[in-house]
């Protein structure tokens, strides 16, 4: 699948959906005084002690997968040098930062840089590698399956195998494939299969094609990743996907990108001139409905462990929908090397010890029952 169908009311390019993102963010500074006061930064408090964290945003690069990435020119991922990874290094990282277990996933570009049998075989290799880790290091690792997108029949077959046979904990999907965002009707058969299994789906941003982004001297992971997550989440809501498939639990990377910040703007879209142009056949969301849909996403703390980011998330959802994420090994250069061994000390600016235990331990395990049983809660 390449590009989008110009006749489809769902046709949405990266540039058109949030093409004026910088201006939009500046204009969307809406006041939410009540929520802001409730989520005001607290004096930094002590984090819980011990190996308690459950990491739902952690990546792995099995040897053959990493070699294939390099062979195909992926020397960087989102502008970050493609890192080395091994189970031993991951466990050492977890031990240092008090992480009990990680739910591993393949980052951008998934296996979508390949096509046909090559993509299918690489997805099966990565998922089988993950399943082996669950056998050999069951108390330290979970995993989200990578799918050979955008081949929908092959992706469905692999999802069924990964969830029903390998018993992985969920799947990871990128925000878009070949410029087609999650929410597009072409993904409906896959979403139906995932909904039937009440799957946990980790939505990770994808790198923006060079011809569809501003020519800025900045790596994608700094800003563009957050905008792409926002585009995907918005399209999933306005096309009714999140309403049609309530059995799927979606985790949005990096505190939902910019979705919490632009939540009011997104909610009122149907009340503006856009309401009269709404594509036929799509449910026209109300303000209350959009707020409800935004609140149902799960938001991870990866590269977002600050009072500013978490206050924004708390303004649109409850604390029970926030889960811990480290983004390791891609975050290795940004992690604090302190005597406290705390991977996200900024979380203590807004959460006390009990709240951190909820966000970093209880909430993740509630979503992944297999991993919860493996680690014994």
Task: Please characterize this protein's 3D structure.
The structure is a single chain. The protein is an alpha/beta fold and 377 residues long. The protein has a single domain (52-375), classed as TIM Barrel (Alpha-Beta Barrel). It has 15 helices and twelve strands. The strands form three sheets. Strands 1-4-5-6-9-10-11-12 form an eight-stranded parallel β-sheet. The protein is globular, with a radius of gyration of 20 Å. The termini are far apart. Mean pLDDT is 85; it is low at 1-42.
Task: Please name the defining characteristics of this protein.
377 residues, alpha/beta, 8-stranded parallel sheet, 12 strands, globular, disordered N terminus
Supply the helix-strand structural class: alpha/beta
Question: What's the number of helices?
Answer: 15
Shape: globular
Count of separate structural domains: 1
Output the strand order for the largest sheet.
1-4-5-6-9-10-11-12
- By oligomeric state, this entry counts as single chain
Low-confidence segments, given as residue ranges, are: 1-42
Secondary-structure element order, as H and E?
HHHEHEEHEHEHEEEHEHHEHHEHEHH
Relative helix content: 25-40%
Fourth-tier CATH superfamily name: Metal-dependent hydrolases
Count of distinct strands: 12
Kindly state the mean pLDDT as a whole number? 85
* CATH fold label: TIM Barrel
The main sheet comes to: 8 strands, parallel
- What percent of residues are in strands? 5-15%
In the CATH scheme, the class would be Alpha Beta
Rg: 20 Å
Span between N and C termini? Answer: 42 Å
